[in-house]
């Protein structure tokens, strides 16, 4: 989880290097040179991913990571340099860590905390950052796919160079440089398998409810979640949902084994793309085309950071399938997701409604809440979340925001994306684009 210290955040001089990717599970470091130990070693690594990290205080925490495409208010088609964004940002007292994605997307990652505390801290940091950006003539776009600009990579670092070569076009550059999301990170709890199942089964309904990326090149792209459409068109061995059986750790081990190698590290500061469709399983077996040395535990930990399924276990659960939202909507996104996965009573009602939609990932991305089955399921899920939020410590204000979102979007069968499409088809107005916050 984004369980980073809640110290005051000061912007680093440069974004974190790709050789320092997200932390691996407990007991494994990216520099770990011990041999993997065959299939059994991968299985143990996968099981570690479902062992909750040690923590201070009570469970039930959530970590919030918000990505934003940053635009020039006066010239939204201009690619804003990362340095220009960085200079505008002040220290963030809520503890959010500031990083950048390859295309210059701004990411704020808050420390893990109970729901009300996490939302309040992130809202304060984002408000401060938004005001500072506005003072520099910039605005974070509350949308999941760049509505007007073609992809342009700003970070020229070894990991991203290898990733770009491996993924190729056109969807690799779009994913790396033109997408933004709300990532919700949740404690595993005493029954991690139950939360893992809920996160997957609810995925299509939540994708539809919060679909918010319908534009590309200044016009509708044919999808309510164009961001999700981009991810679906990448390497499916690393972006498809993890197949579900009775044992989540076993499923995750199989996924890691059968995902194609994206890159191999040659020393501390060098990465090269893997070629020929070689999987981690092939590498373990020493098959033709695999790297010339046996994989280490560090290689396996690094490989796990290069696969991007909708839900990923890392000592917590990462939910990666939600489009970026406007400032008045991302807390709703976090609160509803939290309630439906963390609260057993809400989960029972939500899962019953969502079960018929469990495989509708593509329909959710294309049609959003215009798909009747998804709309009916979303209404039931929001009712369950609204009932649960007061007992989960949500403030009346946050609960009211969820109710207002349900009235505006869910009960009307209109994903947030529908408002953006409507604004574009009406023609340009006198003010800034509606997707600028």
Which terms summarize this structure?
seven-stranded antiparallel sheet; 437 residues; nucleotide-binding; 18 helices; Creatine Kinase, Chain A, domain 2; two-stranded antiparallel ribbon; disordered N terminus; alpha+beta
Q: Briefly, what CATH class of the domain at 50-152 and 174-230 and 310-426?
A: Alpha Beta
Through-space gap between termini: 27 Å
Helix content: 40-55%
Helix and strand pattern: HEHEEHEHHEHHEEHHHEEHHEEHHHHHH
* Rg, Cα atoms, Å: 21 Å
The geometry reads as globular
CATH architecture of the domain at 50-152 and 174-230 and 310-426: 2-Layer Sandwich
Function: Catalyzes the synthesis of gamma-glutamylcysteine (gamma-GC). This compound is used as substrate for the biosynthesis of the low-molecular thiol compound ergothioneine.
Pathway: Amino-acid biosynthesis; ergothioneine biosynthesis
Family: Belongs to the glutamate--cysteine ligase type 2 family. EgtA subfamily.
Biased composition (Pro residues): 13-27
């Amino acid at each position: 989880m984004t369980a980073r210290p809640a110290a005051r955040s000061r912007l680093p001089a440069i974004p974190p290097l790709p050789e320092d990717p997200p932390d691996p599970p407990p007991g494994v470091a990216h520099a770990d040179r011990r041999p993997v130990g065959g299939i059994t070693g991968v299985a143990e690594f996968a099981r570690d991913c479902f062992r909750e990290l040690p923590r201070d205080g009570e469970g039930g925490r959530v970590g919030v990571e918000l990505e934003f495409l940053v635009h020039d208010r006066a010239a939204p088609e201009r690619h804003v340099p990362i340095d220009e964004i960085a200079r505008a940002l002040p220290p963030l007292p809520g503890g959010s860590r500031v990083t950048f994605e390859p295309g210059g997307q701004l990411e704020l990652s808050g420390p893990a905390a109970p729901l009300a505390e996490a939302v309040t801290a992130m809202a304060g940091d984002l408000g401060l950052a938004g005001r500072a950006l506005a003072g520099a003539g910039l605005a974070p776009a509350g949308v999941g796919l760049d509505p007007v600009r073609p992809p342009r990579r700003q970070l020229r670092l070894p990991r991203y160079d290898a990733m770009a070569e491996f993924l190729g076009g056109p969807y690799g550059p779009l994913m790396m440089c033109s997408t933004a999301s709300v990532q919700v990170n949740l404690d595993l709890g005493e029954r991690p398998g139950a939360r893992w199942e809920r996160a997957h089964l609810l995925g299509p309904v939540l994708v539809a409810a919060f679909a918010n990326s319908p534009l590309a090149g200044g016009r509708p792209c044919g999808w309510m979640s164009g961001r999700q459409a981009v991810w679906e068109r990448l390497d499916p061995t690393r972006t498809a949902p993890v197949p579900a059986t009775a044992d989540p750790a076993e499923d995750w081990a199989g996924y890691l084994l059968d995902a194609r190698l994206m890159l191999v590290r040659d020393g501390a500061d060098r990465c090269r793309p893997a070629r020929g469709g070689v999987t981690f399983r092939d590498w373990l077996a020493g098959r033709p085309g695999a790297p010339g040395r046996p994989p280490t535990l560090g290689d396996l930990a690094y490989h796990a950071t290069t696969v991007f399924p909708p839900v990923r276990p890392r000592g917590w659960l990462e939910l990666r399938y939600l489009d970026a939202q406007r400032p008045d909507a991302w807390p709703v996104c976090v609160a509803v997701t939290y309630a439906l996965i963390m609260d057993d009573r809400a989960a029972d009602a939500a899962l019953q409604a969502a079960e018929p939609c469990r495989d509708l990932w593509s329909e959710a991305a294309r049609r959003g809440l215009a798909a009747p089955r998804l709309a009916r399921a979303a209404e039931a899920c929001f009712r369950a979340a609204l009932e649960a939020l007061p007992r989960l410590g949500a403030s009346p204000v946050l609960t009211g925001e969820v109710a207002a979102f349900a009235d505006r979007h869910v009960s009307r069968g209109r994903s947030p994306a529908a408002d953006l499409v409507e604004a574009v088809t009406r023609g340009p107005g006198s003010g800034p684009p509606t997707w600028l916050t």
